[in-house]
Amino acid sequence: xxxxxxxxxxIQLRPxxxxxVVLIGDEDDCSRPRDATEPLTQSCWEAxxxxxxxxxxxxxxxxxxxxxxxxxxxxxxxxxKRAYGGRDEQSVFVTAxxxxxxxxxxxxxxxxxxxxxxxxxxxxxxxxxxxxxxxxAVSVCGDDWVLALASLPVERGFPPVWCPDVGPLEWGLDPQxxxxxxxxxxxxxxxxxxxxxxxVNCVVWLLDEQIDPACSDQEQRAQIDVVRARDFxxxxxxxxxCTHAD
Length: 246
Fold this sequence. Notes:
Blueprint: H1 2-10, E1 19-24, H2 44-48, E2 49-52, E3 55-58, H3 67-85, E4 92-98, H4 122-128, E5 135-139, H5 146-150, H6 175-178, E6 179-185, E7 188-191, E8 202-207, H7 213-216, E9 222-227, E10 237-242
């Protein structure tokens, strides 16, 4: 986490872009405060966690970097992004590939975690402090880490922003009627319907004043957002075709 904080201080963050922080490791976080000068008198594990039987919990205080400083930095970035865009959509997402049982959270975290990795307590706490819809964690022992990334775009507005060319305003083209969005996954193609009443795996069309600056800067007048379920994990190719009648 200290490395993530340092990186955030050294890179230029675009105010209109979402930020995804992915913590990857087969051991728990052992970050120290930047001003720490004294060596640890205990192992990282003992400094960051306490265990009773097979269950382990976060050890508050101690010589390691306080998680509150990690959360506060990301919350500050989130506030800046919302203020810049004037929108309520989440812009900062956190996930982890860490020492967790395969099948977490259905399989509860234990001291055993998974073969070849130390159980994570601090990293998991750092991720799960965020709203469940905006965070996720998967086992580093799993064969496929795609769930750590597939669970990130959980709300309309998560990049990439798609700006289909629906022609100039004088064409009078209504993309909801003239355009069809399809997705291909597992070798099958299906139409993505327009979202209604909290539906997922569907699309939302935005026009003109509603669109993201990323679209207006390209001189486009339409934007399409694909709304996914949090557990959507299958790679999909989305295509939009628009027909203009002369």
